[in-house]
Amino acid sequence: MASLPDDPTLRATVSDGVLRLEGELSVWTLGRLPAEAESAARLDLAGVTRLDTAGAWYLDQRAQAGAALEGLSGPQGRLLEAVAKARPQPDADSPPPAGWRQMLEATGRWVVTALTFLRELAEYLGRFLAALARGIRHPGDFRLTSLVWHCQETGLRAVPIVALMSFLIGVVLAFQGAAQLRQFGAEVFVIDLIAISILRELGILLTAIIVAGRTASALTASIGSMKMNEEIDAMRTLGLDPDMVLLLPRVLALIITLPILGLIANVAGLVGGALMSWIELGISPSMFRYRLIAETSVDHVIVGLSKAPVFAVIIGIVGCHAGMKVGKDAESLGAQTSTAVVNAIFAVIVADALFSIFFSEVGL
């Protein structure tokens, strides 16, 4: 370790914006510079008898700041030049990719983001299944009151809007179907059109989209606000499992209520279609009921309602995952709420398309 040399002296005076230094400008004397030395526009260095690397680094910094250096001797100037050359230079920014490279980079980033999102959803699905298994093995840990409350919020309170929207869809299908089939004298087939469309696809798909828009945002908002207030950390501190308390009741409530809502949507859609068929085509309700029972296979009902538990898991997992991703501010909460709704609806539509392909391949 270097020791302090004998009597290192440095005398600094500042006048008229000029800093005059006399003596040794080294690592040992830099701390003796007065505060007003930083504001000097010129540095008179003719009296400097010794200059080391630390002193040269100080002078280089002052020169970088715009100060004029005067009076350096030849060796001192060469030392200052060497220090300036050794100054680390920031890496130059690489030029942004252009053309097909830019497209490939954007595609790669999108693929990585999508795969990361799917991996996180798979993680939450596994956490839900683990919590479900734990609830079965230890029923005392299962929160039945929370499940009933969420069934009321996600199911019972959604009945009016689901029934009304499905009723209107049935009316629209009957009206549009009648306008087209009347041209061929096949008005009676509007019953088949309404029954297959609603029972097989539109009833459960419309219900899932409504629930995704209504419930996924609610799940994200409730869990996200708890995370902002650090209530989830408090649960862990108290020994409570957030998966058992938050994730399991919410997803399980959706699995229970969505098939019921789908059944209500089917009935409301058929009622709307029957009413419009009666008004527009003169098909009586009894005729509508007879042809519906005689010509419509129960397979359409099974195909439609069998999608409901899968849609429920998708909506619940996406909503809870977005809630857990909320940060510490309200802006993050709003962004994740919107993201949850968009992702849940998109995932439900993709799943419905995959179901259609699957059932078509197996002959249902």
Task: Indicate the topology.
Elements: E1 10-15, E2 18-25, E3 42-51, H1 53-64, E4 68-70, H2 74-85, H3 100-137, H4 144-154, H5 159-181, H6 190-228, H7 231-237, H8 242-281, H9 285-295, H10 298-306, H11 308-324, H12 330-362
Parallel strand pairs: 2-3, 3-4
Antiparallel strand pairs: 1-2
Helix pairs in contact: 1-2, 3-8, 3-11, 4-8, 5-6, 5-8, 6-8, 6-10, 6-11, 6-12, 8-11, 11-12
Read across the widest sheet, the strand sequence of neighbours is 1-2-3-4
Largest sheet data: 4 strands, mixed
Low-confidence runs of at least 5 consecutive residues: none
Helix content: 55-70%
Give the percentage of residues in beta strands: 5-15%
Through-space gap between termini: 85 Å
Coarse structural class = alpha/beta
Question: Helix and strand string, N-terminal first?
Answer: EEEHEHHHHHHHHHHH
Helix tally?
Answer: 12
Task: Average the pLDDT over all residues and give the rounded result.
Answer: 86
Topology, number of strands: 4
- Computed CA radius of gyration, to the nearest angstrom: 37 Å
Q: Any idea what the shape is?
A: elongated
Quaternary state of the chains: single chain
Transmembrane segments: 158-176, 188-212, 251-279, 300-319, 339-359
Subcellular location: Cell inner membrane
Function: Could be part of an ABC transporter complex.
Family: Belongs to the MlaE permease family.
